[in-house]
Design brief:
20-stranded antiparallel beta sheet; EC 2.7.1.68; 37 strands; alpha+beta; nucleotide-binding; 771 residues; transferase; PInositol-4-P-4/5-kinase_C_sf; PInositol-4/5-P-5/4-kinase
């Protein structure tokens, strides 16, 4: 059919002038919508495709590539406020490499994903501050460097726009601090090097992010947008083009302009979404004990410990102490000898993780489309198994993969499918959390079982290797477990989401269970305890204690005082869960306790007030919610009436229960406010506020440090774990009684209640009732 030129006016007021093929615009043409929107450029079978210009009545304009009626390819968008984006687009959304100049002269240059900064990029503020590093969903995340106009520089990890994790802060006057941060506040131990002291070299640390130790950025070519290179290398897919009739074009012509709404230029317009962080004040460097005049300043450094930005301990040490040598910011992994699965090291361990991800993706993808039904007795039986062989080259049922050949076995798939739904987990999110491109992280085992633990990339799920005996216990208890968690949504017992087995090509069998991570929280867990209610061997050597070490009963030096109704709800559920475990003859379980400490309110008196930021006034569009190192609220915790729209009510991997009620708020459902940090929903075992009363014990070995306070505000997380050890023989019972200081003559297999009574009595001491 020949292409010809022509003009056409539509009943709704739209007008087209240009080449047509049949009844459809095809080739060069101009379309004017009744609302004033104008497009000039290429058409393909009635769709805007190719090169063109689009002008909105609001004053915005776009020039670049189109495909199938969408902004797709390379193009430049000028918004009504004169901000300019030049880069790649995908279906009307910024996606790929691009540069955005904001109306206030801020500049972002880097990677975009679905309209937000995501990947490698740099952001420069008009006040002279600059960040270069990783972004995720429009916020600074993972590794990055912030350099302030005053010369201060931070190089380390970020999370949601806050300094979070290990990092180095270098002051303009030469001081240096190496330590850890939590949501923008110093939190944990670190080392402070005064100006003039002998400082460790930062070359290795800095080189890993491409800037030198003088603070000069070396932005790699791949991290900067080359406009000509993008334009020349752009290959736009035309597969989006959909043929439409002339009648349809006339009928829906108004919708074509609607597709290019203000959202295109507003979707990532405000630099106010980015936290323009404040450099540290002088008190952040010198709070605490001053330097002794009689000491050599060049040899003195300070070991410090912070809690939520407040200095609580400081010890003078020599700068030549090599135990505090600064290392590149890699997340360390503890390595310890394992009695089980010692062959799973290096390459084998990598294959195992790949196999696990492939198998879970297959299992969830196969069972999810099956209509939901109530479980039957046969769903728990020996025949309730799914088996599949995964050859490296793939098969009619499995995809090709880069691992080794393996066989996969899935236990009780319908039961665990229903459990995941009962725990309100979305199947797609579950699969992406474990099987996504970010992979799994191996973590060290806190116990003596020798099991290997893996953590999903978003910290939601823990995957643990099982012994054959543990698998058998889990399968035997599964019918009663299913019933118990169905009746008691507030149960503290570990959530199980799936049980699987991998058989490697040389015959080795590895069994796994997927569990919820009860420490998956936006708050930092400062202390972890595994409590059994025993004193026999239940302590940790001080030389082995690290930041994430799980401590034991005798290491616990706190009593926790809770709201009356919160405590009642806690012990009501503990009694129910212990009775359930008694019925299964399981007595060696533990309470896993996690504590998030808030800075003591009394420390506020010694802090200088936050400095007013003069440079902030010059950037009116930047959010005022800045992160201050020393801005600690006068109250650590506050209970308020629950507001569903003000908190995240999505179920977590550890808990799905109801919102708790507090006596102090008129027996209403409550939320927990952490001023300056978050508003959280209070549930059993999650986000529970308490006061930790420290049992002071004089320690001569730590005479150089001072414990400043006796009472702390804490947020408590807890759950009952280690429930797969079944003691059903006299020999096992006697061994357990000995380790727990019981008399074997007073206990039998039919009397597991002795353990639960001892366990609950111990918890009554840990969480005493108010008198």
């Amino acid at each position: 059919m020949d292409i010809r030129s022509g003009d056409r006016e539509f009943p709704n007021g739209d007008f087209y002038s240009g080449e047509v093929k049949g009844l459809l615009p095809n080739g060069k043409g101009k379309y004017v919508w009744s609302d004033g929107t104008i497009y000039e450029g290429d058409w393909d079978q009635g769709k805007i495709s190719g090169k063109g210009k689009l002008f909105w009545s609001s004053g915005a304009k776009y020039e670049g590539d189109f495909s199938g009626g969408y902004l797709h390819g390379y193009g430049t968008m000028t918004s009504p406020d004169d901000s300019i984006y030049s880069g790649t687009w995908r279906m009307n959304v910024r996606h790929g490499l691009g540069r955005k100049e904001y109306c206030n002269s801020d500049l972002y240059d880097g990677s975009w994903k679905e309209g937000l900064q995501d990947g490698r990029g740099s952001y420069s503020w008009t006040n002279g501050n600059r960040y270069i590093g990783s972004w995720k969903k429009g916020k600074m995340c993972e590794r990055g460097v912030m350099r302030w106009a005053n010369g201060d520089l931070y190089d380390g990890f970020w999370l949601n726009g806050f300094r979070h994790g290990s990092g180095v802060y270098k002051f303009a006057d030469g001081c240096l601090y190496y330590g850890t941060w939590s949501r923008g506040l110093k939190d944990g131990k670190g080392v402070f090097y005064p100006a003039g002291s002998k400082q460790p070299s930062l070359k290795k640390w800095c080189r890993s992010l491409e800037y030198d130790d003088t603070g000069k950025f070396v932005l790699s070519r791949s991290a900067s947008v080359n406009v000509e290179e993008l334009r020349s290398s752009n290959t736009v897919s035309r597969s989006l083009s959909v043929e439409t009739s002339a009648g349809e074009m006339a009928k829906h012509s108004g919708r074509i302009s609607d597709r290019y709404t203000d959202d295109i230029w507003r979707s990532c317009d405000p630099p106010r979404d980015f936290t323009c962080h404040v450099p540290l004040s002088k008190s952040a460097r010198f709070s605490g004990s001053g330097q002794s005049e009689g000491q050599d300043k060049n040899r003195i450094v300070y070991e410090r410990e912070y809690m939520q930005g407040v200095l609580i301990r400081e010890t003078i040490m020599s700068s030549v102490d090599r135990s505090h040598k600064i290392k590149p910011p890699l997340r360390p992994k503890e390595v310890r000898a394992r009695s089980l699965l010692t062959f799973l090291r290096g390459e084998h361990n990598y294959y195992l993780m790949l196999n696990l991800q492939l198998g879970i993706r297959y299992t969830v993808g196969k069972i999810t489309p099956v209509p939901r039904r109530e479980v039957r007795a046969s769903d728990f039986g020996k025949n309730a198994r799914t088996k599949m062989f995964f050859p490296r080259d793939g098969s009619n049922f499995t995809p090709p993969h880069k691992s080794i050949d393996f066989s996969w076995k899935d236990y009780c798939p319908m039961v665990f499918r229903n459990l995941r739904e009962m725990f309100k987990l979305d199947a797609a999110e579950y699969m992406m959390s474990i099987c996504g491109d970010d992979g799994l992280t191996e973590i060290s085992s806190p116990g003596k079982s020798g099991s290997i633990f893996y953590l999903s990339h978003d910290d939601r799920f823990v995957i643990k290797t099982l012994k054959k005996s543990e698998l058998q216990v889990l399968l035997r208890m599964l019918p009663k477990y299913y019933e118990h968690v169905g009746y008691h949504e507030n149960t503290l017992i570990t959530k199980f989401f799936g049980v699987h087995r991998i058989t490697l090509k040389w015959g080795k069998k590895v069994r796994f269970v997927v569990m919820g991570n009860m420490f998956c929280t936006e708050l930092k867990i400062h202390r972890r305890y595994d409590l059994k209610g025993s004193s026999q061997g239940r302590f940790t050597e001080k030389t082995k204690i690290q930041e994430k070490t799980t401590l034991k009963d005798l290491d616990l030096a706190y009593e926790f005082h809770m709201d009356k109704l919160l405590r009642e709800a806690l012990f009501k559920q503990i009694y129910l869960d212990c009775s359930f475990l008694e019925s299964l003859n399981i007595i060696d379980y533990s309470l896993l306790l996690g504590l998030h400490f808030r800075a003591p309110g009394q420390l506020n008196d010694i802090l200088e007030p936050p400095n007013a930021m003069s440079d902030q006034e010059s950037v009116s569009s930047v959010d005022v919610g800045l992160t201050q190192e020393l801005s600690i609220p006068p109250k650590g915790l506050l209970l308020v009436t629950h507001e569903p729209n003000s908190v995240n009510t999505a179920p977590g991997p550890h808990i799905r229960g109801s919102t708790l009620r507090a006596f102090s708020v008129g027996e209403q459902e409550v939320d927990l406010i952490l001023p300056g940090t978050a508003r959280l929903r209070v549930q059993l075992g999650v986000n529970m506020p308490a006061q930790a009363h420290h049992k002071l014990v004089e320690d001569k070995e730590e005479s150089a440090t001072i414990e400043l306070f006796e009472v702390y505000d804490v947020v408590v997380y807890m759950g009952i774990i280690d429930i797969l050890q079944e003691y059903n023989t006299k020999k096992k019972v006697e061994h357990t009684c000995k380790s727990l200081q019981y008399d074997p003559m007073t206990i039998s297999v039919t009397e597991p209640s002795i353990y639960s009574k001892r366990f609950v009595n111990f918890l009554h001491k840990v969480f005493p009732e108010e008198r």
